[in-house]
Amino acid sequence: MLSVRRIAPLLACTAAAAMTSTSHAELSANLGLVTEYLRDGISETRGEYAAQLGATYIHNSGLYGGIWASELKRNDDHTHSEWDLFAGYSRPISHHWGIDLGVMRNTFHGDWESSEQSYGEGFLRATYKQAWVLGVRQTNNFMGSEFARRVLEASYTLHTSNFDFEFYTARHRYLGFDDDYNFGSDYRDDYWHFRVGVERTYKQYDYRLTLERTNLTSDYDAGTTFQFGIHRYFDLW
Of 49, 88, 147, 149, which sits 20 to 30 A from 105 (CA to CA)? Predict the structure, then answer.
């Protein structure tokens, strides 16, 4: 997934590129390993590690696109991986403010039931001083269902010379639900996701440690979880 914490650096790249009148583009790739893959606070690997990879193209016009993938290890189906395609437009609108809007296609692979969970999602985010991010995401068929889901999210990142400290929260809500599609009971249509993290980038490596928690019931693998990840970035163009 294209996470909130990647939006501010993306805006910084497009802002710097916009200072030149010549056309400019960047293509990068990444390869990494995390101790556990948490998708919106819910584990997708049952407490086990996951390999991840991705590629992103950024143009100085503000347009960008890419692909991201992660290994999955679920208990209840044969899904083995998630592949996401994303595209958007990210641009500073003043000295302090920036916007980011785009679309994402989340796809799941394993068997025919896995592919039916795929869905599209739109997002709109605003940044302030490359530290605050306020955003909304919405899909009309979450996990292949007939129900819409909306996510309201906010984060603050404290930047220091060596480390970045992130504080994030989000409210996930079904805009309709039934016995099969809910967040823990027939009357539960929402949940909260909280995350604090510290990140260090050294040369071409990104090191990240997070503590995540939701208020979901024990029906979900979404309690308090520590996650550590290492990603190697490659400048291709």
Answer: 49
CA–CA gap between residue 45 and residue 37 (Å, rounded):
6
pLDDT value of position 11: 53
pLDDT in tens, 162-185: 999 999 999 999 998 888 888 887
> By CB neighbour count within 10 A (0-12 exposed, 13-18 middle, 19+ buried), where does 186 fall?
exposed
In the predicted structure, residue 19 carries a pLDDT above the cut 70? no
From residue 229, how far is each of 50, 52, 196, 199, 210 by CA, in Å?
9, 10, 14, 10, 9
Query: Which CATH superfamily does the domain covering 4-235 fall into?
Result: monomeric porin ompg (2.40.160.40)
Delimit the domains of the chain by residue range.
Answer: 4-235
The confidence score (pLDDT) of residue 179 equals 81
Total H helices, total E strands in the chain: 2, 14
Q: How does residue 75 score in pLDDT terms, banded at 50, 70 and 90?
A: confident
Identify whether the C-beta of residue 3 lies closer than 8 Å to the C-beta of residue 209: no
Residue 32 · residue 49 · CB < 8 Å = no
pLDDT at 230 over 80: yes
Nearest to 230 by CA among 203, 196, 192: 203
d(CA 125, CA 169): 14
